Amino acid sequence: MTKLLSVKDLRVGFGRDPKANEVVKGVSFDLDAGETLAIVGESGSGKSVTALSINRLVDFGGGRITSGSIALTRSDGSVLDVRTAEERILRSVRGHDVGMIFQEPMTSLNPVHTVGDQIEEAFRLSKGLTGSQARAATLDVLQRVRIPDAQSRLGYYPHQLSGGMRQRIMIAMALAASPRLLIADEPTTALDVTVQAQIMALLAELRAETGMAMIFITHDIGLVAGIADRIMVMQNGVAVEQDLADRVLDHPQHDYTKHLLRAVPHFTAGKSVRAAEEGKPARNPIVTVDDLVVRFPVGKGWLKPKGAIHAVDGVSFDLVPGETLAIVGESGCGKSTTARALLGLNTITRGRIVAGTGHSRRPVQMVFQDPFASLNPRLNVEALLAEPAIANGQRLDTDLRKRMAFLLDRVGLPQDALTRYPHQFSGGQRQRLCIARALMLNPDVVVLDEAVSALDVSVQARVLDLLIDLQKEFGLAYLFISHDMAVVERIAHRIAVMFAGQVVEIGDARSVLSEPQHSYTRRLIAAVPAVERRRQHFTVDMTQVPSLVRPPGFEPPAAQWREAGEDHRVRIEEIA
Fold this sequence. Notes:
CATH class of the largest domain: Alpha Beta
Radius of gyration: 25 Å
Strand order of the largest sheet: 15-16-17-13-18-19-22-21
Largest sheet: 8 strands, mixed
CATH topology of the largest domain: Rossmann fold
Number of strands: 22
Oligomer: single chain
Strand content: 15-25%
């Protein structure tokens, strides 16, 4: 039987001498119709370059296929060697035979055209549909990717949709040409766990409906465990292991595959929560947040706004030295707005943020998600570390340099790092620099806003271990914001679950994860992908987050709470 795709000894290089700068080194694999291959590996392993070579999109990024063959069986039964094909032929292959979904939908969609127009364009180019036929096909494909209220969404622009919705639009555009092979390059990395589960379920259903093959690229083995038929593991441009998914997951043969599986944070529903420290921290809060309300005016009426976004509504919690409070929830739930209010970056509408008694208020510091964007590329490490101290009135003297050397050692970076620049470090090392910089002023509280979500799993594990060690050494209080429940389980002592601007459940991490009481907390936990859950089917939960835009003067009813155990409270849900 002819394979849908057969890649033999693929080699791809970049630069003026691509053979001397190979990033894909002799990769071979086959793919049958209807089969899903997961290509797994860390940043720089060559997985995305391999995928981009299949339809020669790598040509537009300065890459060149130096040797090997890519045999693609087209819908008419002919076999095309993609490597030697002319560009005019490739234009008919892209979209029609091979569809593509990229990681960041906002950069893939045109911001000045409605999503309806963009999908119609895909139908016009691939199938020649125009007018009412194109509009009907667009509506149909939006319904297939489970876009609610599809008719009205046709007129939306990309910025008016959530990240999950935009990713569904990208899938709809890819499906417009009915491709026989769909390549999904990290399509869910930036999405929240519930939206991620929805997209995975959708892809599994579409594969069953249409019989298309898929290549799924990711660094998260747990994510592909429920959808992949075969797994290929890549390291440094080489396919080090490939086999049926269950064999790779249950009996990995290569040391690197074993390393990847060990590094994946395994979610255990509260069984792996951090043990309480000896002499558990006394509940003397370093910071108390009391009935925090943050609202943003929206729309323009006569002399006053037409309403407000209730970004944070009545949030209360304590931060205790030596303890981590994790805030979890979907994008838009108010996690980051709460953190920014704690730092004084957002104006508080109502409520209080006060330092605990008996403590001198030291600066709250923050570590952001993207370390490269957080570091000035024109400054070397010495200048970057000195910056917060100098801004705080200190001088660049011997004591300050000793502090830099001490912190570099504590975060596992060499002393010669002081003279280097951000681009000379890996992603994990840059995040360590951001952590060292946050500690320069000896803060009581460090806010970590998705601080490990952009890192590869093994780097992520090392950074989490570092954070735990630093917390024990300096008695730091962490406010840890994340959508990754497995990571939260590994680092948190306490958890606050946010939904639509409000905390709906808060308490001891083990109790919240093992006995979730609120329906939203249960949804979050049910959506966590895991190697151990691969035999359960993905399910689509289409519950929509309510709009946070309220009319002027609107005040939500006072929250009603019930105790669910020692240090575990849950908000009583309103009956619809």
